[in-house]
Amino acid sequence: MGSLTYFDFLAKFGVGGAHPGGIHLTQSILANEKINNQSVILDAGCGTGQTAAYLYQQYGAKVFGLEINPIMVEKAKKRFQTLQLPISLIQGSIEEIPFADETFDFILSESVLAFVNKPKALKEFYRVLKKGGRLLANEMTINRPISHQEAAEIMNFYAVDSLLLEEGWKQLFKTAGFQNIEIHAHNLPLSHGNQTPEFNFSENFEPELFHVLNEHGNIVIKYQDTLSYRIISVTK
Ligand SMILES: C[S@@+](CC[C@H](N)C(=O)[O-])C[C@H]1O[C@@H](n2cnc3c(N)ncnc32)[C@H](O)[C@@H]1O
Q1: Is the dihedral of CA 206, 210, 216, 218 positive or negative?
Q2: Closest ligand 1 atom to the C-alpha of 45?
Q3: Which residue in 20, 92, 12, 88 sits closest to 49, CA to CA?
Q4: Rounded to an integer, what distance in angstroms lies between the CA atom of residue 235 and that of residue 135?
C-alpha cells in the first residue's frame, strides 16, 4: 500500500500537536512572545487545531487556521465548534496563502514548512506578515550531513524535497528577507516526539496505516542521532 503517506496516518488518526515537543513546547515558545487579544495569528498547517484553540483560549487572539488536508480541516472544525471557539478555518496551501499582504502579527509553522516548497512558502509567510511581525517555526532538521542513501530513505518516507541542516534553514530565512533569525536546538531526537499525544480517530481507516506508523517508528529510531528539529523564530 505504497500510496498511503505519513500525512494520511496523521489525518486518519487525528494526531493533535503533531510536532516534536507537542503542546507543552508550543506553550513555552508562545510565552516568550508579546501576544494579546489584539494579535492576529495564522496557524499555518494547523492540523486538527490544537495550537489554534490554545491561542484563542489563552490569549483571546484573532486566530486563523490554514490547512490543506480535508480530513484535518474537518477535525479542526469539529474541535472549534465543540469548544465554541471563534477561529476561522480555511482550506488551502501555505505555498499560496489566501490572505492579503501584511495581515498577521504572528505566523506559526509547527512542522509544516519542512514538508512543502520551502522558498515558496517562506515568500508567502513574509508577504502576509506585518512589518515587525513574528514567524515561529518548529521544523525537522538534520544534525549532520548525511549520505545520499540515508537522505533518500528519510525524504521518501516524509515525501519531502530536501533535508536541511541548521545552516540551511538560516540561509533560507535570510534569503526570504527575515531578520533577527534565532535558532534553538533542543538536542532531542524526533523519537522524543510529543509526550502528550492526542488522537481523534476517523471512523474508518485503512489497516495499512499501522504499517506507516511502524515505518515512522523505525525511521526515528534508526536516525535518532541525526534527525532532530529546531525552533526557529524570525522577524519581518
Ligand atoms: C506534521 S503535521 C503538523 C500539524 C500541526 N501544525 C500540529 O502541530 O499538530 C503537518 C500538517 O501540515 C499540513 N500541510 C502539509 N502541506 C501543507 C500545505 N502546503 N499547506 C497547508 N498545510 C499543509 C498537513 O496536512 C498536516 O496537517
Answers
A1: negative
A2: 22
A3: 88
A4: 6
Confirm if 52 and 115 have CB atoms less than 8 A apart. no
Note down pLDDT in tens along the chain; length 236 residues. Answer: 458 999 999 999 999 999 999 999 999 999 999 999 999 999 999 999 999 999 999 999 999 999 999 999 999 999 999 999 999 999 999 999 999 999 999 999 999 999 999 999 999 999 999 999 999 999 999 999 999 999 999 999 999 999 999 999 999 999 999 999 999 997 677 777 677 789 999 999 999 999 999 999 999 999 999 999 999 999 99
Please determine, looking at this structure, whether the domain spanning 6-235 carries the CATH number 3.40.50.150. yes
Nearest protein CA to atom 18 of ligand 1, as residue = 93
Give the residue, out of 13, 25, 43, 67, with the most ligand 1 atoms within 8 A of its beta carbon, to mutate for a pocket test.
67
In one letter, which amino acid is 91? Q
Closest to 205 measured CA to CA, from 87, 99, 71: 71
Q: How far is the CA of 33 from the centre of ligand 1 (A)?
A: 22
Quote the ligand 1 centre to 47 CA distance (angstroms): 5
